[in-house]
Automatic annotation (TrEMBL):
The chain crosses the membrane at residues 51-70, 173-192, 204-221. It comes from Tichodroma muraria. It is found in: Membrane. GO terms for biological process: heme A biosynthetic process. This is Heme O synthase.
Length: 249
């Protein structure tokens, strides 16, 4: 927001932000950001593990130094922003496991794909605002691509859900139970692609709000347990001791 004050002042959805209205000074905003970001990275590095801390630092850099300036330069910003949104759940996985394995990448992939129907549908109703602010969004400069990409990633969620049991992250019930909600968001994605109006974009956006938590809840419910993996010999050597401890009364 520090970098975007002149542009945010031209948009209805951002013109009341504290920096735009002068309720806080730019110096205070930067100091507050630094006082949250630097100790946050240090806590993740020292209190969790260096990998999680490094991912946190990289995400702050990606958001501030890449995504933010790209918003006024190229529609590539949406893809970069999707990476920014996918990293936090990956950090949760690395915090729990200490490794950047297939489960972390799959979880990040689900969050990555989900963001396109979510944001593209949202941005469709804000095209005038983005245009006034001078932001390069697909909905403004490439409306056809905006709708195609949203539909494409709705369908990608079906494929990603099917990959989970192949990678031994969930049971085979996960892609089956999640199929109805994935098909529903894909149907709304198709309606958005076909109709290209505010009504279809709103329906897709509001569906995305409940779709993600429900999909993750189903994924959690269908996850493979540590004991199942240990019985199959799929756990790394260091985790067999943990599985044995779980079995003890």
């Amino acid at each position: 927001q520090f970098f975007e004050v002149p542009f945010d002042s031209n948009m209805n959805r951002t013109k009341n932000r504290p920096l735009v209205r002068g309720q806080i000074s730019p110096l205070l905003a930067v100091c507050f950001a630094a006082s949250c970001g630097i100790p946050g990275i240090a806590l993740l590095t020292l209190g969790v593990n260096p990998l999680t801390g490094a991912l946190g630092a990289f995400n702050i850099f990606l958001y501030t130094c890449c995504y933010t300036p790209l918003k006024r330069m190229s529609i590539v910003n949406t893809w970069v922003g999707a990476v920014v949104g996918a990293i936090p759940p990956i950090m949760g996985w690395t915090a729990a496991t200490g490794s950047l394995d297939a489960g972390a990448l799959l979880l990040g992939g689900i969050l990555y794909s989900w963001q396109f129907p979510h944001f593209n549908a949202l941005s469709w109703g804000l095209r005038e605002d983005y245009s006034r602010g001078g932001y390069c969004m697909m909905s403004v400069t490439h409306p056809g691509l905006c709708r195609r990409v949203a539909l494409r990633h709705c369908l990608a969620l079906i494929g990603l859900s099917a990959v989970a049991p192949v990678l031994d992250i969930t049971t085979w019930t996960f892609p089956i139970i999640s199929l109805p909600i994935n098909l529903y968001i894909s149907y709304l994605g198709f309606r958005f692609y076909r109709d290209a109006d505010r009504s279809s974009s709103r329906k897709l956006f509001f569906c995305s709000l409940w779709h993600l938590p429900m999909l993750l809840l189903v994924m959690f419910t269908c996850k493979k347990s540590v004991l199942e993996k240990e019985d199959k010999g799929d756990l790394p050597g260091g985790n067999h001791e943990m599985a044995m401890e779980i079995r003890l009364p």
